Amino acid sequence: MAAAQRFDQIQTPVIPVMAQLIAATPGTLSLGQGVAPWAPPEEVLQAMAAALRNDPDLHRYGPVAGDPELRAELRHWLEQQHQIDCSASEILITAGSNMAFQAVVQALCDPGDEVILPVPYYFNHEMAVRIAGGHPRAVEAGVIPDPALLEEAITERTRAIVTVSPNNPSGAIVPRPVLAAINQLCARRGLIHISDEAYALFHYGAERPWSPGAAAGSGGHTITLGSLSKSHGMAGYRIGWAVVPPELMSALTKVQDTSLIGPPKLNQWAARAALAVGPQWCREQIQTLAERREQVLAALGPASPKRAWRLLNQPEGAFYALLELDSSLSADQVMKRLIVDHQVALASGSSFGLKGACLRLSYGMLSGDDLAEALRRLERGLLALS
Questions:
Q1: Of 350, 287, 318, 272, whose CA–CA distance to 168 is shortest?
Q2: Exposure string (b/e) for 339-369, b if CB count within 10 Å is 16 or more?
Q3: Among 233, 312, 310, which Cα is nearest to 273's?
Q4: Using CA atoms in the order 160, 166, 168, 170, what is the torsion angle rounded to 10 degrees?
Q5: Among 34, 67, 205, 207, which is most buried by a count of CB atoms within 10 Å?
């Protein structure tokens, strides 16, 4: 029996496609998947072992929105580390921020409602809007999105505008004035501003990430998404959250009860321990990526007459960079040829809404000699394919 017809309009996730090509090409070095290279703090493992021994209710269902203790500790973390005013908001604990986004768009969208996604967008966001029955309205407003172009794209069916800062796939940090303008636009037009902040602690230069949830009076029209997957090396633990206007909690708990019932209790013990370690542990891990970033910029930096590619922007956050190649091939074709012919993997930019032969590079997985060799292979491959 065939799947529902609406899934014909949903893109195939690029990461599994890339993984299949890598598996069929032994020796490939991957600059593809976005994974932090570190494991969680030791305190996380200790807390989970203690919970297994000492929590007599670990095997039972927990609260749909998450354990009250974790929600309270997360509220304190968000207020202290990101200056988010949670006083007028509720917190929903989810199985990663991807699930938080999916729950949010299901709660917001009736069939045909629109969600504005500035290009480049995160591909799972586009997929989630379609699965919810909504229409993802991709807007080419620049890597740093122009609020005026976003406003021009608003229709009577628009429900939300999404921003991702620091950005996946570009590594850009959206400046505070731009995010503030988008947030004010949403307030003025009666929309929700969904701010995805999975990489909120990742920055390398003078520009620091800023959360729209820190703006005075933003609680009624701002949703902040976050996760421990990157900052604490806990991707497999699936712990994320959404800070939401209280009036959305009824719908969100319906979505969560239907899909997850409640976030895994053992993983919430892990999350509490991770938050208790404090932000300095995260910053120390993140700074180990700074040298890798410099390697990438040195290898792929300003275009010269011999180079047929360019960085679309200066990546200042997360652990990504976007390349644009002068080629007649599509991004999907370039991705495949780089893996099969040159044994180096990058993600196709078409999945992020980008036109032409654009590729996302992640420097989170490789370091040292492996990263240097991957960049040499990439340079040779780009020259061959241009």
A1: 318
A2: beebbbbbbbbbbbbbeebbbbbbbbbbeee
A3: 233
A4: 110
A5: 34
In angstroms, rounded to a whole number, what is the distance separating the alpha carbons of residues 235 and 40?
Answer: 9
User: Residues 84, 224: contact at Cβ < 8 Å?
Assistant: yes
Coil, helix or strand at residue 94: strand
Query: Can you state the angle between helices 249-259 and 97-108, rounded to 10 degrees?
Result: 120
In one letter, which amino acid is 71? Answer: R
Tokens of 216: 């005075």
Which pTM does this prediction carry?
0.96
- Chain segment 120-153, per-residue pLDDT in tens: 999 999 999 999 999 999 999 999 999 999 999 9
- Residue linked to tokens 């207020």: 79
Inter-residue contact 378 to 338 (CB < 8 Å): yes
Tens digit of each residue's pLDDT (9 = 90 or more) over 43-71? 999 999 999 999 999 999 999 999 999 99
Q: Per this entry, what is the length of the chain?
A: 386
